[in-house]
């Protein structure tokens, strides 16, 4: 009963927090003349990925690498397939050329790095150092492009908030997202554990979906408000952040043995980001039917996981 209550309260906090975060980040981007794509790739993506970061770090320190790696893999599958799928199904998502030609290839490269590093069954400190170095390069590269004005702006409605209030909205939104996700994960994990589900599957499904609730809520709200640049930037940035920063820092603190994460899981993660890039490349937009396809593929993957538990 307590687990169910935690799930309900957690979802409510996440949804409300996503609305505040989107308004604040959009207003900040407009006031400071910063492209929404950059805000999505940096501030929003990092903020909404904090639940994954803390869950993975604590899991690795406590000696449960299945949960740590499964959380990142599952979250990235959730991001590219379900979040983009649901967001595009609700409102077709326009995507800038810079995102398709520069940011998405980087996300694919980060995903491929993780797949190749996992072939030997662990993520060593050397692997983690390479991941973290790639993250630093991505951040510097993104900010330099923005400074040179090479990142196109996706316009939406104007948000009448001062810079100070925008920051307040962002902080409040992030706090609600992280707190709500924490409640959700605790409640859902208790329910799943009571049903006898394995740690790896919990990481790939319950924890991954729970810690990705901020990305889902933020992207859906942003897409509904016509801020598709921020929505897709949030997904791409979160995927890059999850792999390069989260596993980079986690692996430096505690090298991880990859157990319980199958080749199928890794391939689905890679296929998801490739499909996202392919759909985006056509007319620089993800249509409703393409969103439905991504969402259905996610449902198929979850069904496969449940059947093979």
Topology:
Elements: H1 2-31, H2 36-48, H3 50-61, H4 65-90, E1 93-94, H5 97-117, E2 122-123, H6 125-147, H7 163-194, H8 199-211, H9 213-224, H10 228-253, E3 256-257, H11 263-281, E4 285-286, H12 288-307
Helix pairs in contact: 1-2, 1-7, 1-9, 2-10, 3-4, 3-10, 4-8, 4-9, 4-10, 4-11, 4-12, 5-6, 5-10, 5-11, 6-10, 7-8, 9-10
How would you characterize the overall build of this protein?
It is a multi-pass membrane protein. It holds the Pfam family Na_Ca_ex. This is Calcium/sodium antiporter. It is found in: Membrane. Helices cover 80% and strands 3% of the residues. The chain is an all-alpha fold. It has a single domain (37-159, 199-307), classed as NCX, central ion-binding region (A middle domain of Talin 1), CATH 1.20.1420. The chain has a two-stranded antiparallel ribbon with strand order 1-4. The longest helix has 32 residues, at 163-194. It is globular.
Number of helices: 12
CATH homolog superfamily: NCX, central ion-binding region
Radius of gyration in whole Å, from Cα?
18 Å
Quick one: overall form?
A: globular
CATH architecture: Up-down Bundle
Which sequence of SSEs, written as H and E, runs from N to C? HHHHEHEHHHHHEHEH
How many runs of DSSP E, i.e. beta strands? 4
Percent of sequence in beta strands: under 5%
The tally of domains stands at: 1
Major sheet: 2 strands, antiparallel
**Unreliably modeled segments:** 151-156
Please give the share of residues in helix: over 70%
Structural class: mainly alpha
Task: Report how far the terminal alpha carbons are from each other.
Answer: 25 Å
Mean pLDDT level: 78
Q: Which strand order do you get reading across the main beta sheet?
A: 1-4
The level 1 CATH classification is Mainly Alpha
